[in-house]
């Protein structure tokens, strides 16, 4: 294994050998434990990014380590040509926590983008082809998922994309009602626009989407890639709305750091996909599914849903209580929070926070996103709140991201 001697050494190796996607990272992380990570220089940070909301149980959680170690030593990969018991057990567990046992079916994939690609294909099996999604939404960067993504900056370099997708303003019920008709195959929505700056759906919006899609026969696909598996303080975001979508996509937290995604088809939507219409070599890999089971069991055993809900409220209240002139407010819930800034200086805030020992995500020029491991503890949260004023004070009006 390449030994990277410093952050700069890591940056140089990355730049010479790895393609640009997010650009060359400035920090080389070499070790993690819980919500803490260490860089190549030995400096310690509290990780409030969580691998972009992936590391539900933090780093090197003993349950995940034990589960994947035992599974790789037992049965490492089978493909979908054979039943593997771990995938079946995880599918049943996901349906259970979703409250959909006996009402749905699960397709395992490898990522959130692949989950949305599969959901897109499932929607075509209704015999309709038109799709409605939201402006500002993020559903992934593969071609189909990118077509659903409502961010022109990410889409335009790859045009032309799939035809038949209409984007409407997020939260605008009448715009959604006007865009959906009897030719619409599906409406793709998120309960929180995570990548657009942590923007929750307005009250009543998802309920209206459910009513509109039921009336027109379109599928309601809820992208829970970022909000699922406890991130908002409930297993899924839809459970806070009183509705049940036709299709739910998830990934990120479900694998506890391993590549795992899933599509849950509810009711008739779970039977649309027929043999031979979709394939995924690694989807449902036993090792990843073992990690997923460890994640679900630890969240339930350690009462992490209540912890996430309470700690998220404490952090949001703590940020608001600072009364800092740069902060416009805190959006989101659970441990998916966006700190709104009066100026486009999120990059500078993130840099200053890093220097103080806290990793945060400048998801938009005027928003800092927090998506820490669900095991973040109160002391770590208090430490961040104590360090935040200094990070905010250090900024200028020019975003350095």
Automatic annotation (TrEMBL):
The keyword Iron does not apply. One of its GO terms (cellular component) is cytoplasm. The keyword Cytoplasm applies. Pathway: Amino-acid biosynthesis; L-arginine biosynthesis; N(2)-acetyl-L-ornithine from L-glutamate: step 4/4. One of its GO terms (biological process) is L-arginine biosynthetic process. The modification N6-(pyridoxal phosphate)lysine is found at residue 252. Its cofactor is pyridoxal 5'-phosphate. Its EC number is 2.6.1.11. Pyridoxal 5'-phosphate binds at residues 112-113, 138, 223-226, 281. N(2)-acetyl-L-ornithine binds at residues 141, 280. Binds 1 pyridoxal phosphate per subunit. May also have succinyldiaminopimelate aminotransferase activity, thus carrying out the corresponding step in lysine biosynthesis. Belongs to the class-III pyridoxal-phosphate-dependent aminotransferase family. ArgD subfamily. Homodimer. This is Acetylornithine aminotransferase. The lineage of its organism: Bacteria, Bacillati, Actinomycetota, Actinomycetes, Pseudonocardiales. The gene is argD.
